[in-house]
Amino acid sequence: MPSDENLPIKRCAIYTRKSTTHRLEHDVNSLVTQREISSAYITSQQYKGWVELPQHYDDGGHSGSGLERPALARLMQDIEAGKIDTVVVYKIDRLTRSLLDFVRLIEMFDRQSITLVSISQAFDTSDSMGRMILNVLLTFSQFERELIAERVRDSIRTRKRHGRIHGGLPPFGYVAGRDGIHVDQAEADIVRFIFAEFLRTRRYTSVMTAVREAGYCSSVKLSRRGVPRGGTPMSPGTVYGILRNPIYVGQIRGHDTTYQGVHEPLISEATWAAAQALSEERKKRSPHAKETHHFLAGLLWDDLGRHMLLDLNWQRGRTYCAYVSSNAAWSQVEYRRAYRCNADHLDKTVLAAVCDFLADRGKLRGALKTLGLFGDDLDRLANRGKAISQMLEVTRAEWLPDLFAALVHQVEIAEETVSITFRSLELRRLMAWDGKTAFRGRPADWPCSDARYVLDIDVRVITAERWPSLHIIPRTEANDTRPNPKLVELIKAARRAQILVDEHRDLSIEELAKKQGCRPTHFARLIRLNYLAPDIATAILDGTQPAELDRKTLLDSNVPTSWAVQRKLFGFPAPERAISPRNLFGRGMWPAAGQMDGKGAEAQAGDGVSRP
């Protein structure tokens, strides 16, 4: 038998789970019991080289029906990082109660050569017999979970059919009693006030304003453990929920119908019918009710960390869609302009960039490598990239929101760049897409891998409002600098070359270069000088360019298309977009933060500054 020194070390991670939070605050609970039993088993296997890892992977109060659990996510990330060899659980249903989720986990374990061991069921997945027994046990575990869920759903339906609520805290306007819910007169008056104001003003915002001015607060109710909840000013969501809840007319909302309740109603049938008719009327008139297929909603952030939301405006019979930065409090204090992007243009730009990325074999391989794929598996997936790109170009618009929600983790907007962060896990799944059905992600798998790939695109998508998108510094009489004649002649020669290209489209580059009086390679470099940023070209014509910039530097640079890169390359300072608030508001005229009314200071300046 080999000596202990020659045994391979197996790093064992113990995973524990408990479905409820009951008794978790005690020193000895189910999680501790599972860990101690698993730790004792690992100790008994020390002769095989097993070593227990000190990290704890404990999920207290999390169901086994899904994979969205914090400790399980950390476990999968450590597995992907190569820190674990064996996963030990007390029972297999502690890991998952879903057969489909189990298959996904085992697939990930096999890919990383991870062994799964269940203590109480005495098997592991290192051989075929263990995997077979595991599948059988898990099938019964899932059956048990689904049976419990069916019993609970049947119980809820039965209570609703008999006109009773199915538990939890009583709704606003009622208090719980032994035989059901009873009217709380003080709160009932508030409910009637809300309905009356809605029918009078016909606007949700007006109702919310009236509730806020009256100082109404949510009810204070005790949880099962006696913890008080509520007592805060009523939120817009609470007010809207009251206006849409049929419980106040004496009904119980079911899954697809309503049932007559046994409790006392707070409003009349006529009031309820009028409020619902008004809600439907407002929903039809509202531009926000229109169906849109802007697939970046929920994925956009700007480079300052503000979430960008879809904003719909209805003007002159037409809906204008834009993505706008959220009005964060800190951005108001710092006088930060809110970014605004045309939604249609940005969607087309991002879609074109993703299609180009999928068709680029080099970039696609780099993204797939973040999952640890190499060799034949990597080549097989990369070969599908161009076909997937072509399918994505013609896919149906209503499929794009689900596809991008799965494939893209985040899109970040900056002044002159757009960064797209892909989920590598979903990118691999996309390579098997046939394009015949909608592609949807598997959110339960996302915590299992944090592999990402960032694609940067040099493009300007932020809408310029009130200030020009070209940054040209005007020449003044006080500027006594003399332009460099060689640089000026170079700019003029580039423009003459462009005119030749525009006027003689039937000539080859050799013939165009002959007309210009230079070699073809020099002619090509001249053409690229027309890509210079306008502020750089005007600075050269005015003679305000950096002293070290010369003719040879411009010609040899091959002029990158990114204006930001050009400024760095040629020594020009970045343009100053921000305007000093002191200049905007004059001497001593500083607005208080509360006076902005939800808008940045720049919006109030008027001249030369864009609205947020």
Secondary-structure map:
Blueprint: E1 10-18, H1 30-44, E2 50-52, E3 57-60, H2 70-80, E4 86-89, H3 92-95, H4 99-111, E5 115-118, E6 123-124, H5 128-161, E7 174-177, E8 180-183, H6 185-201, H7 204-214, E9 221-222, E10 228-229, H8 236-244, E11 251-253, E12 258-260, H9 269-285, E13 300-302, E14 308-315, E15 318-325, H10 329-333, E16 340-342, H11 343-359, H12 361-369, H13 375-382, H14 385-393, H15 400-407, E17 408-413, E18 417-423, H16 424-430, E19 452-458, H17 485-503, H18 509-516, H19 520-528, H20 534-542, H21 551-556, H22 563-570, H23 581-585, H24 601-605
Parallel strand pairs: 1-2, 1-3, 1-4, 4-5, 13-17
Antiparallel strand pairs: 5-6, 7-8, 9-10, 11-12, 14-15, 15-16, 17-18, 18-19
Helix pairs in contact: 6-7, 6-9, 11-14, 12-13, 17-18, 17-19, 18-19
Please name the defining characteristics of this protein:
Hect, E3 ligase catalytic domain fold; 4 domains; 24 helices; four-stranded mixed beta sheet; Rossmann fold; globular; alpha/beta; 612 residues; disordered C terminus
| N-to-C CA distance | 75 Å
Low-confidence stretches: 578-612
**Percentage of β-strand residues:** 5-15%
Counting structural domains, the number is: 4
Can you count the helices?
Answer: 24
